[in-house]
Amino acid sequence: MDPLQAxxxxxxxxxxxxTRGDLGRADAAYAALWAKVRATGTLDVFIVSxxxxxxxxxxxxxxxxQDAHGLWTMEMRDGNGLGFGIFGLExxxxxxxxxxxxxxxxxxxxxxxxxxEEAQLAVxxxxxxxxxxxxxxxxxxxxxxxxxxxxxxxxxxxxxxASATVALDSASGGRPVxxxxxxxxxxxxxVVDWGDGTAVEIHPNREARLVEPAPPPKRxxxxxLFGRS
Length: 229
Prior knowledge:
Number of strands: 2
Order of helices and strands: HHEHHHHHHHEH
Distance between the termini: 40 Å
Shape: globular
């Protein structure tokens, strides 16, 4: 089997563990896959972005916030390669479904900010975008539920104060939010089948050297998702 296809299969197996709630094994599976990919000395932005998304989901759900924050704030120049995945997540190298999951993860990490005003603003911003752009009802409802949980955590009050739920109430259309345990949707399949409409495992121009990866162009949707021009 081609190495890229094998990595995609291993990634989807890790996603299955994540979806089943077997978080420790899922986190270990993503780490093992990352070790294989990094050992090649060449990184593919799609593969690394998907690995990093899975790692972030696991670490947040395990409440390993320090580890999650360290990964989330990595940059391409940091040298170990995972910052390349963060770059890809924020610059259109994954499907919008996974981009929405990344926003949900970001909201969970923003909720850990000890400055309540900053935390509230970031959570409202991230999850408001997810609700606005979500193409699936289940993702929308899960985002609303997570939103409530984050506000409870930020304000240390359940239910959160009415003054804190204005954006959430607007996003829900004034309907009561159906609460679920904090969770993320299952990541999308490890296949590139958007953009030009051609289904391929990995697009040839997505490959980049480990040392100095070339930044891909930003796409309009992701500029909207992450509030960047």
